[in-house]
Design brief:
The protein is mainly alpha-helical and about 170 residues long. It folds into two domains: about 80 residues, no CATH class; about 55 residues, no CATH class. About 60% of the residues lie in helices and about 0% in strands. The chain has a two-stranded antiparallel ribbon. The protein is rod-shaped. The relative contact order is 0.05. Bound molecules: zinc ion (2 copies).
Length: about 170
């Protein structure tokens, strides 16, 4: 008799546990979530996360490579670019304006131009670069060369004969 009551009590307890109010609510909520998150939605979110992560990685690579090409410190900028998106954005704002290759080319251009000018020399009075055929300094008006009376070529003052037309200079 006693055992029978005890068994009845135990079974009623387990029934209450499995069909309890909390249990029902929990399972219905998880079911609702499960029906909301379809495989398509999950794939969509995973794709977005992968794209965001990829852009982050690409931004780091871009910063390191670009800072190297522009002669900035790639280690420092690489570390700054680890701040997602903000680092790369800061680099884009502050990076050196010119690529190293371009800068080298510009330096070379400048050197070549200088050399070109050196070939012709400069005004003895003011230092202005002058070309071979200049009779007068374009800047200060100093007479640089004599003009051949016969052919009009510019002649060095020490020349006794015009090398273009063989006319004696005096
Ligand atoms: Zn001059
Ligand atoms: Zn001449």
């Amino acid at each position: 008799m006693r055992l029978g009551i005890l068994l009845e009590l135990l079974s009623s307890c387990s029934d209450a546990y499995s069909t309890g109010k909390d249990g029902v609510t929990m399972s219905s909520v998880s079911e609702a979530i499960g029906s909301l998150i379809t495989p398509e939605i999950r794939a969509f979110f995973i794709t977005i996360i992968v794209i965001i992560a990829l852009f982050y990685l690409i931004s780091i690579i871009w910063v390191i490579r670009d800072s190297y090409l522009r002669g900035a410190n790639p280690v420092v900028w690489g570390l700054i670019s680890l701040i997602p998106y903000l680092g790369a954005f800061a680099y884009a704002m502050l990076r050196p304006p010119m690529l190293l290759a371009d800068r080298d080319e510009q330096d070379l251009d400048f050197t070549l131009k200088q050399r070109e000018l050196m070939k012709y020399g400069e005004c003895a009075n003011c230092g202005y670069p002058v070309e071979r055929e200049y009779l007068m300094c374009p800047q200060c008006g100093t007479q640089l060369k004599n003009e051949c009376k016969s052919c009009g070529h510019a002649l060095n003052p020490e020349w006794k004969v015009c090398p273009y037309c063989c006319t004696p200079t005096r």
